[in-house]
């Protein structure tokens, strides 16, 4: 799996730079990240401000940082496009209201190819960031949902945890989509011979119940598809994580690596708790979350994100836009 430093180096070598819109341009962290992206030739930042009075002179005077001030911005084209996209679900009056919100402007910039990707969430909830993306940018063909992943990193260990942030209790069919999105993400990061474990409190029928059936059915659907990766489940975390334990608890398991690349959690409770345990007790760095399944990249920040968190997420968001 590519490291963040390798991804950063790849971005620096790109002759054509991608643009990333930050709807929270008033944030000092965002402004610092924008300057870093420009200084290190990683991407072209677009900062949104509610008022032209909010734009600091050092941003205003930086010709490589584009700014859009909503108090000076004509939203008519965006409002008309929003009404078309919503297909009768929004009036022009509703469109006018939502186009006063920076996240909606940002999502529309991406939709209309005036920006390549978007990053928000320092001062907004996940719903405030993702809702405009779903309404305007939409999900990729073949997918009915978006999902999220964290890259859990410690030394030479890198794992993908999904879905820890978006889908509360996914159906079997949704777990299939979540797995496939995570596999595509792993391949984009140069993971070879991808393996995914679909987690449960049961290993290969050792436990019973509706939640076990939901995961088991997802695995059956995945195994029936033609694919170039390995998936297995339902399986408990200890058996998935360690091959010796797996060999005892799950005979003829198709997972061959010591530890699989992807851990698919059965619901948001397990995923959210799981990544935080790995982060706090296991000493893993949680990079993300990254939103998967959208037509163009939009990512959500934690409201407690630091400069380094935002910069790393911006780098990954730009990388995914190529």
Automatic annotation (TrEMBL):
Metabolic or biological pathway, per its Swiss-Prot or TrEMBL entry: Metabolic intermediate biosynthesis; acetyl-CoA biosynthesis; acetyl-CoA from acetate: step 2/2
Record-annotated Phosphate acetyl/butaryl transferase domain positions: 5-317
Reactions accelerated catalytically: acetyl-CoA + phosphate = acetyl phosphate + CoA
Superkingdom field: Bacteria
Keyword Acyltransferase found: yes
Enzyme class, spelled out: transferase
Name of this protein: Phosphate acetyltransferase
Species this protein is from: Mycoplasma capricolum subsp. capricolum
Primary gene name: pta
